[in-house]
Every structure is written in C-alpha cells, then in structure tokens.
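Q: I'm writing up a methods section and want to include an example of the input and output format. Could you take the sequence below and give the corresponding predicted structure tokens, formatted cleanly so I can copy it straight into the document?
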Amino acid sequence: MERHVLISLRIATKDDFFEANDTRKINIPYFYKNSLGVIETKVYYFNENTDIDTFRSCYAHSQIYVFNDVTQVRASVNCIDWDLVETELEYELNQLQQIKKESLDMKGKVFSEAIEHLNKNKWTGVPNQAIPYCSDYLKTRVSHHFAKNIFQTTNYIKAIGYRKEDMPKRITLAELKEDKNRIAPNITDFETPIGQNELNLFFEQEPFKLHLHSSLGNCELCWKKSDKTLIESIQYGTRFIDWHRDEETKYGNRFFRENKSIDDLVALAESGIQLNLLNEFNGDRCVCNF
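A: Here is the clean output for your methods example:
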C-alpha cells in the first residue's frame, strides 16, 4: 500500500550543511527552488560531489530548502508520492497558462484605457515628463491594492531590485539607511553590492532565457528612458510605434522628452545617427519603484 506524507520545508542555513569547524556534513537532503519560484520535486544530496560554487550561489539567493524536522527526513523521502506532486504542479501551471491566455493583454489596451479614464472629465493628455501619471495608475496603485489584499494591511516593506549600477543616481546607501518602507537586498544584503555582471552570471545557470533585448525592458518605449535607449529600441524593433502615434493624435500632446513625438524618434532612428553621440544619461529618475 502506498503511503503519502505532507512535508514541511524551510530555507536552509549554513548549519544545515557544515559543522562548527566548517567541515561538510555528508548526504544532507535538500530541495531547490527554481526561477519560477517553484520548489522542485527532486531530492538533492549535499556531499563531496556537490558543485560548491553553484550551491553557494543558490544558497545566497535563498533557493535551497531543507526539511523542518530532521528526525523525519529518512522516513519522509521514501514515502512521498512524487508523481502525484508533479501532477499537481502541472495542473497549477496549466491553470495559470489558461488565465494568461484569457486575460493577459500585450497590446497596450490597459494603458489606453487608463489614458482615456484620466481624460474623461478634463483634458489630461498622454503621460510625459510634465504629467507623469502612468506609473501611479498602472503600477503603484495596482501594486498597493494587491499587497493590501494579500497582507490585509498597508504596513508592509517594499523590496526594490536596485543594482550596484543604480548608485548614486537612483538610490544611495544613505537613503536606504533612512528609508523605513523600502529595502534593496541586491545592494545591502551581500558583502559587496550585486551588479549586472553578477546577475548575468546567476541567470546563466537558470533553465530558461528571456532572449529580450536590454533596451526593451519594462515599457518598451517608456518616456523615462534616454533618447539613446529609445532609438535603440526602435532600431531593434518594437510593437508600439503605431500605438504611440494613435494616442498622440487622439489627445493632441506628445509622450517624449523635449516635446518629441514618436515620429521624431522614428526619424532619428532612420537617420543613421550615431548612438554614441547621444546622452544615455538623460533619462529621468525612475518612479516605477513605488
């Protein structure tokens, strides 16, 4: 007769794998949380064959889990119906994919609706440097509402993905020290702040790649981006040139810095302008971080 158990896991600590004198413990079972946030069903064992560099990288990012009750480890590993666990995970992922197909819009529909809503009672125009309302209505308010529903309180701390390269233009250690509502783990939780190179090395170990051009991150043609980045995005290929043109025509003002229109940026992209002549630091301080 098959036996099934419900196991309880926790994030691993150094003491789970090393003795007080820093010698390795042998054959300690552990689980790995992948980049999707799912704890994989495969049981790994920490021993002399473990790739310690990869293990340390995963450990540093809280991706290593162990049993809560070590006295039940031996019994539990042999009793888990892993086929059943995998079936349940596949079902949840299929449900998520179905929800995405039915409700996820990737053509700017929600953005258009937000602009229309803000222009209902009085003219507001499209968002730009002078009227930067898009982050507030499309990100900040939505995120706060979601967090309030989840935590049942507004008293929570926000973790922001600042990197080493963001200092000091977007954030400083002094600001983080004084801030009681935001933390930046990549900057403060390691011996030295984590930068883009370290993140690239980490994601090289992940089982998937986004294959996304760096200039297209976040909103592809966000008006906060530098002229250089916007022109790079247009030259690379973006889905939203017509969308920006339609919105600018509808509301009579322009999205981009120095009152540039989307057609102005397209003309620059087609002119063969040397990107290294453009100022890549003329982007605004990002306000998408809540």
